[in-house]
Amino acid sequence: MSLTIPRIAWRNLWRNWQRTCLALLAIGVGQWALLATQGIMRGYADNIQRTITGPMVGHLQIHHPDYREKRAMDRVLHDVDPLVDRLRALPDVDGVAARIYAPVLVAPERDAFMATVVGLDVAAESRPYGMLSGNAATLEPGKVLIGSGLARRIGAAVGQEIAVLGSATDGSMANDLYVVQAIVTSPVELVNQNGIIMNLADARELMIMPGQAHEIVLRATRLDQVDGIAAALHADPALAGLDIATWREIVPEFVIIIDMVDYVAYFLLALVLVAALAGITNTLMMATYERMHEFGMLLALGCTPPRIRRMILVEAVWLGIVGVAVGTVLGYAFVLITAQTGIDMGAWGGGDAKELAYGGMRLPLEIRPRLTLRDPILGLVAVIIVSMIAALWPAFTASRLEPMEAMRA
User: Fold this and answer.
1) Residue 349 burial by CB count (10 A; 0-12/13-18/19+): exposed, middle or buried?
2) Residue 209 and residue 204: Cα distance in Å, rounded?
């Protein structure tokens, strides 16, 4: 196709600039809506993903084969400390931490309350994305940290002595006295509402779990390294028979929400295509009927029908490209601005909440929209295809004109 046809098509597009601008507005608004909504959804999915792969779940977890199903105290991992040291030495592994979970009764005075002892490597869990992120990195032996919600419920205070009573892994009674070192607020709702945080050594002594743990949590340096680390763990003979699961396998209900971002994009893309189809078809049909005399003259002077068809198809492509370009500029401007300022979803409900507790985790309600290179390209390619489809009827109508009848029109 010569360069003459794109130039002629571009010039023809602006003969009736008001109608062309209306068509561009319809396409541009659709593309803007696609990118704006996609950016917000990606920002929301990022919040969920960071929360899932952060303090509560990590990127991978290792358990006794029956632990995730039964949550029984005696479903433990053995010789945990050497295993943790070996896992920390693996390539692409950023952090490893062992944990113990045990249901107990806690009595600050006379009344007893249900709680959960969480035995942790306090130093490891005080790092970013740890269960104690933002809190002190040390915990003295014989002392505990209490979640803020549990402390309010039982009336515990810093420096107070509390009794902890539970059942050890060997079936014996586990009980001891501990001093509250601090009241903490954790990114994990389990800790906030029910957690009594102990050093791993204290929790092992209380629950008769020498060298044992219920869970080992691993974090990768980057999210895209998780599958490679999982494959290496599955191939390790020392881990044979253990339950090794990635975050996507541990919380599939949240993964569904994250994956819904693409489904929402396809739905919005369909709306963009409807707007493009209606706008382009209307614009080109009107332009074709207005230029019947011109097309008749061109055919009479020897212009071939395929050339007429190409010219109208190129007009449609120009219309689609310019419309998508306008919408992309507006969409990226919206995302860039809101990525800096953030979107406070808590304010939408008329409150000042900053987080939402769900599934034992705390999801931030402030969204930072984000786009990928794929997002505008998806709209561009789809609109160009729809533009060419929309132009087929006007193009074939114009190319099948009888020159003399068209010149009399």
Assistant:
1) exposed
2) 5
Q: Which residue has the tokens 């998508």?
A: 324
Tell me the residue ranges of DSSP E strands in 173-236: 173-184, 195-199, 215-220
Question: What is the rounded radius of gyration, in angstroms, for the C-alpha atoms of the chain?
Answer: 32
Distance CA 15, CA 20 (A): 9
Nearest to 105 by CA among 87, 117, 89, 90: 117
Low-confidence ranges of the chain (pLDDT < 50): 1
CA 255/CA 49 separation, integer angstroms? 8
DSSP 239-275: GTTSEEEEHHHH-HHHHHHHHHHHHHHHHHHHHHHHH
Rounded to the nearest angstrom, the gap between the alpha carbon of residue 27 and the centroid of all alpha carbons in its chain is 27
Residue 215 and residue 201 in contact, taking contact as beta carbons nearer than 8 Å: no
- Considering all CA atoms of the chain, what is the largest pairwise distance in Å, rounded to the nearest integer? 105
Please give the C-alpha separations between residue 230 and each of 95, 124, 170, 192, 234, in angstroms, as whole numbers. Answer: 14, 21, 32, 30, 6
- Residue 64 confidence (pLDDT): 94
- Is 202:160 a contact under the CB 8 Å cutoff? no
Closest CA to 175 of 186, 167, 183, 185: 167
**CA dihedral (25, 26, 32, 35) positive or negative:** negative
Distance CA 58, CA 219 (A): 6
pTM for this predicted structure: 0.73
Q: Write the DSSP assignment of 365-383 as a string of letters.
A: -EE-----THHHHHHHHHH
Task: Please tell me the distance from the alpha carbon of residue 311 to that of residue 132, in angstroms, as a whole number.
Answer: 65
Cβ proximity of 221 and 90 under 8 Å: no
The whole-angstrom distance between residue 36's C-alpha and the CA centroid of its chain comes to: 15
**Which amino acid is present at 216?**
I
